[in-house]
Amino acid sequence: MLSRRLTDLAQAERFQLLLGAVKDYAIYLLDAEGHVATWNTGAQLFKGYTADEIIGRHFSTFYTEEDRAAGLPERALRTAAEQGRFEAEGWRVRKDGTGFWAHVVIDPVVEDGELIGYAKITRDVSDRRAADQALRDSERRFQILVQGVHDYAIYMLDQEGVVTNWNAGAQAIKGYAADEIVGRHFSLFYTPEDREAGAPARALATALREGKFSGEAQRVRKNGERFWASVVIDPIRDESGQLLGFAKVTRDITERRRAEEELEQSREALVQAQKMEAIGRLTGGVAHDFNNLLTVIRASADFLRRPGLAEDKRARYVEAIAETAERAATLTGQLLAFARRQPLQPEVFDVCARLQGLLRIIGSTIGSSVTIEIDLPETEHVVEADPSQFDTAVLNMVINARDAMPRGGTIRIAARTVDGVPAVRGHAPALGAFVAVDIADDGTGMSPETLKKIFEPFFTTKPVDKGTGLGLSQVYGFAKQSRGEIDVESRLDVGTTFTLYLPSADGRALSGPAPDPALVDLATVARRRILLVEDNEGVGRFAAGLLKELGQAVTWVGDGQAALKQLNNSRDAFDLVFSDVVMPGMSGIELAQHIQQRWPDLQVVLTSGYSHVIAEQGSQGFPLVRKPYSIDGLLAILGSRST
User: Fold this and answer.
1) 626 by DSSP, 3-state: which?
2) What's the rounded Cα separation, in Å, for the pair 134 and 182?
C-alpha cells in the first residue's frame, strides 16, 4: 500500500513538472465553485498573474466586466457540469488590464461520482483571430470592390460551369439579377449557334489546358439582345492544385467594335477617295497625252486624203503617223508597267554588261553639263528580267537625275550584290540574293512629301510639257513585276539615290542575242498558211489584210472554238496559228495548249496588248507579239521557222 502511494506521488510530481513546462497553454484547476486551485507557467505568461497572486481567486477575474455582468463565467461552469464540456472563444483580460482573444475548454473533474472541480485550458489565439479577421476584411473589401465594378461582369463558375456568384457589373451588362442566374449554367449567355457548336465547353477546356481562355464574340443579354463581349476565363485551384471552379470576367465592347467599324469605314472611304483622285489624275493624264498623239495622227491623215499631195509631204505625214504610233505604244507600255500588267519577255543577262552598253545612249541623253561616274565590278551580276524594260527603267532614272541638276552635276551608276532587300515603303523585307543598281545624283533632292508620290502615274515636279509623269511609274512597275523592288533616298539640296533591286540569277547561263527584225528579208519569208484567231472585227480585218500583203494565206476566225473546229476539219491546211490572248470563252493560251497537246508539230504564235493571264503567268513558252505590232515584228515571227 505504501509503495503504491509513493508511486502515485511520483507520478503526480512528474505530471506537475509536465504542466509547468507547457508555456503555450494556461492549464489549471478550479474548485467546484470556480476558484483557481493550481497554476502553470503558460497561465502566468499570458495572463500575467503568479501562482501566489491568483490561486484562491475566482476565475471570473479573467473575464471582461460585460461578460461577468452577463453571467458568462457561471454559465460556462454550468455547461461543463451538465454537458460534460464547455468550449468557446472570447475576450479575456490580463493582469495589466489588456485584453486578448482566448480559446477556452473547461472539463468537469469528478471523483467517486462527485463533482470536485474543473480542468481549464486556455490558449491565446489573438494572432490567429487577427489573421482571420484580416482575411475576412480582405474578402469583404474584395467583395465590395467586385460589387462596385459596373463596367465588367465578374463572377465565379463551379467545375461544371454553373454560376456561383454575381456582381453588379454582371447584372448591368447581362440583365440578370443574382437570384435569377446563380445556379444556372453560363452557356445561357452564348448565342444559339455558339452553344450548338460547343463553344462554352471549348472555352472551359481551353482554360484548363492552357491556364487561360480569352476571346471576343457575341453574347446574349436577358432580353435577347446581342452584344460584343471580351471574355477572360481563369481556372481557380486550391493549395493542392484541386480545381475549385473558374473566374470569369466579361466586358461589353459593343461601342468599341462600333467605333472600330466606323473608323474602318472612314478609312475605306478615304482610300476610295484617294483611288478616285488617282484615277482622275490618271484619266486626265492619259486623255491629255493621247489627245496630243491623236492630233498628229488626225491632221496627218487629213493631209494624206488631199489629192495631188507632193510625194515628199506624203512621206513626211506617213512618217509622222508611224512615229506617233510608236510614242502611243510607249505610253501604253509605261501605263501597263506601272500596273504590273506589261507582258515581259525575261532573259538571263549580265547587269554590268547591260549598263556598259547603255553608256553611249546615256551620254547623248544627259548633255555636256552632267558627268557620269561608273562603279561596275568586273564579275558578272546576272539577273533574269526583260532587258528592254531594264534599259527603259535605267534611262528613266538617269533622266530623272539629270533633270534634278539643271546647272549640271554628277550621276553615279553602280551595281552590287546584296543579301536581301530592306523594308521599303512599309513593305516587308525580302530575303535572298539580289543585284542592286544604284543611280545617284547631287541635285536638288526631294522633300518627304514628294517622295511619297513620285511613283504615282502622271505625278511630276517638272514644268508643264517637260515630263509625262510616267517614267518612275514604269520603273516601279518593272521592279514589282520582276519580283524586285525600287527604293529611293533623298535630301533637299544634297541629292537623290535610286536603288533598283532584281533577284539574282547567279549560275544561270546567259541568254543568246535576239534576232533583229530589221534583218528579215520579205523575199526570204516563205508563204505560210495562217489560221488567224481574233475576236475584234476591226483588228481581225486589218491583221488579215496585213498578212496577205506579206504574201501569206490567211483564214480568219473569231474565237478559240471556231479555230479548233477549223483544225479538226482540215489540220493539214495550216502551218501556223496566230491567236489573240484575250477572247470570250477559250483564251489564246488555252487554245495554244490544246493545239500543242493534240498537234505538237503545229506552230502557235500569241499576240496581246494586255492580258492579266500573260502578266501573271507569262506566255507559257509560246512566242508573243505585242500589240500594236509592226510589219517587222510580224516578219520576225514568220521568218523564225520554216515549214
Assistant:
1) strand
2) 28
